[in-house]
């Protein structure tokens, strides 16, 4: 009978050891999951910061281009010639496109970022081209 009691105590002790070992493994697993969760949060925050920095850079470029156009349009208002009116009309169309892209840029999400970025880059290249052509076409207005 005492042998049975010792055997029972030994089995119970081993069962308790197994439970504490399993508990330790569960704790390690929970810690690992928490670390992964924290890393994902940090990565998401870094990605959002990067996206916001790119968005700000493009917004600044577009706003700078818009200011240049506004300044030139103000100068052209002083000159009442027909050529000046044509130039203002052309610049007004370009300014409208820039305003639309600024709105798109402000409302873009991470999911639509790539396409918005491409569209803004295309518009900036187009506006560079048009600005150069504009200067060539209206040389006399750029004294």
From TrEMBL:
Which keywords does UniProt give here? Coiled coil
Domain of life according to the entry: Bacteria
Which residue spans adopt a coiled-coil conformation according to this UniProt entry?
19-79
Query: Could you tell me which SUPFAM superfamilies the record lists for this protein?
Result: Apolipoprotein A-I
Q: What is this protein called?
A: Uncharacterized protein
Q: What organism is the protein native to?
A: Chitinophaga tropicalis
